[in-house]
Amino acid sequence: MVEKKQMPLLVVEDSDEDFEVLQLLMEEMNVSQPIHRCKTGDNVLDLLYDKTAAAEDPPIRPAVILLDLNLPGTDGREVLEQLKQDESFSTNPIIVFTTSEDPKDIKFCYQKGANGYFIKPVSPEKLERHVHAFVSYWLQVNTLPEWDEVNLIP
Predict the structure, then answer these.
(1) Structural domain boundaries enclosing 105
(2) Which pLDDT does position 2 carry in this prediction?
(3) CB within 8 A of 105, min separation 6: which ones?
(4) pLDDT at 151
(5) The CATH number of the domain where 54 resides is what?
(6) What pLDDT does residue 60 have?
């Protein structure tokens, strides 16, 4: 079993500025997990479904996926729906982190299996509190199932 501290956090975020702020806040909080970033929904699906990876370099199994909804190409809604319908990824925690306050988006995401929904605050202080809450719960307190490292199935 891979320890959670070694399992990466996958951030799906197209905004360089938002990603840099997240990364900086996580460094300040001493997040030990490697952080992988994808800028589009297509990139995240390519990364997670990489069938061409060598046996010694299998596709990543993120501890948590932090997912923006409004992405170029395949958007976050489609990524969420596809991953939660796939038995290999259905139990992976996916936390939506977006600017959308639309009640339809919130309802859709929970109906499709999102494990959380964070609205990106404009205030730097509120953003720091949100990121701290995310890190504290999802990366430190939450217990993940044991993963079969060969098949990547819980």
Answers:
(1) 9-141
(2) 42
(3) 69, 77, 98
(4) 41
(5) 3.40.50.2300
(6) 76
How many residues are listed for the chain in this entry? 154
Residue 59, SS3 per DSSP: coil
> What is the amino acid identity at position 65?
I
Measured in degrees and rounded to the nearest 5, phi and psi for residue 29 equal -90, 10
Token pair 């409004």 is found at 70
Angle among Cα 22, 24, 30 to the nearest 5 degrees reads 105
Question: b/e map of 112-125 (b: 16 or more CB within 10 Å)?
Answer: bbbbbbebbeeeee
146 in a structural domain: no
CA distance 104 to 106: 5
How far is 51 from 152, CA to CA, in rounded Å? 12
Instruction: For residue 152, tell me if it sits in a domain.
Output: no
∠ Cα 70 29 68 (to 5°): 5
Contact residues for 3 (Cβ-Cβ < 8 A; gap 6+): none
User: Which residues of the chain are under the pLDDT cut of 70?
Assistant: 1-5, 51-59, 147-154
For the CA atoms of 27, 114, 75, 153, the dihedral, rounded to the nearest 10 degrees, stands at 80
Q: pLDDT per residue over 29-57, tens digit each?
A: 999 889 999 999 999 998 888 755 544 45
User: How confident is the model at residue 152, as a pLDDT?
Assistant: 43
Residue that is written with structure tokens 């170029």 in the block: 72
Distance in angstroms (rounded) separating the CA atoms of residues 78 and 149: 26
